[in-house]
Design brief:
With 263 residues, this protein is an alpha/beta fold. Helix content is 41%, strand content 15%. The protein has 12 helices and 10 strands. The chain starts with a helix and ends with a helix.
Length: 263
């Protein structure tokens, strides 16, 4: 790994080897998602606890202060919407020149293994890696499942993560599942966990994040369970403690309640 690649990886993964990415890229296929209508305002109080932002170029330009930002992971795949025929039918949306112009620390792209567009999205990943390797930009592969949430089991996610790593992804974002160690053990690059649908309780969120870290994930890329929560700063601080301070789920909930009750 050359100096530029190592330097960019060090921007998004902290010295303890862990990371907390805050994704606000949902609008690229969902439009003005609840609580993310004005993304710049939503994330302002959350930034102190984030290690990097996962965002599209449009929101980056229009809503993120370049003087007060965290490292940027740029979403560079898209082309479909939640009301379209198939979320898996994505393409590359952003040129390498634009990635460099925006001074991003990494880029992220979705792959849809097991769908009619499996080949296209995997080749998108390979093409992106080919381009980004020339300029020392890490690529994060996102193992997307579209609307087919039942695919989130260890066997399927282990397959997705390994293929993404084989094609050159430096980091893989995937979903937590039962027997999560089967996913991380078969993936030779760092794995971060996605948040997925909203959980019912704060403890439920802390438990799956804690379990995933114990079983080999280096961190999380979690958005809706934070910024759609009634107390987003409390959630952010509690999750930060699980990721970077080895807090247990119970300790994290105590932190959540302490911050929440200060208001």
């Amino acid at each position: 790994m050359d100096w530029g690649m190592r330097n960019r990886m060090a921007q998004i993964i902290k010295p303890d080897g862990h990371c907390f990415f805050l994704p606000i890229d949902h609008g690229y296929f969902l439009g003005p998602t609840s609580k993310l209508e004005k993304p710049g305002e939503t994330i302002k109080p959350l930034l102190p606890y984030a290690d990097a932002l996962f965002v599209t170029r449009g929101v980056l330009r229009s809503a993120i202060d370049p003087l007060k930002s965290k490292p940027i992971i740029l979403r560079v795949s898209g082309g479909t919407s939640v009301v379209g025929e198939d979320l898996a039918n994505e393409g590359l949306t952003t040129s390498i020149e634009e990635m460099l112009r925006l001074n991003v620390s990494a880029v992220g792209i979705s792959v849809f293994v097991g769908t009619p567009y499996e080949k296209e999205t995997l080749l998108n990943l390979a093409e992106l890696v080919n381009e980004c390797e020339n300029f020392g930009i890490p690529v994060m592969a996102v193992t997307a499942v579209g609307k087919e949430l039942e695919k989130r089991d260890a066997r399927y996610l282990a397959l997705c993560c390994r293929i993404a790593a084989e094609l050159g992804a430096m980091v893989v974002k995937t979903y937590w599942c039962e027997n999560f160690e089967k996913v991380t053990n078969g993936c030779p690059v760092p794995v971060v966990m996605a948040g997925g649908p909203k959980c019912e309780t704060e403890l439920e969120v802390m438990e799956f994040v804690y379990d995933g870290i114990q079983k080999g994930a280096i961190g999380i890329n979690l958005g809706r369970n934070v910024w759609q929560h009634k107390h987003p700063v409390a959630m952010m601080k509690a999750l930060h403690a699980v990721i970077h301070k080895k807090a247990t789920p119970k300790e994290a909930v105590d932190i959540f309640n302490e911050v929440k009750n200060k208001k």
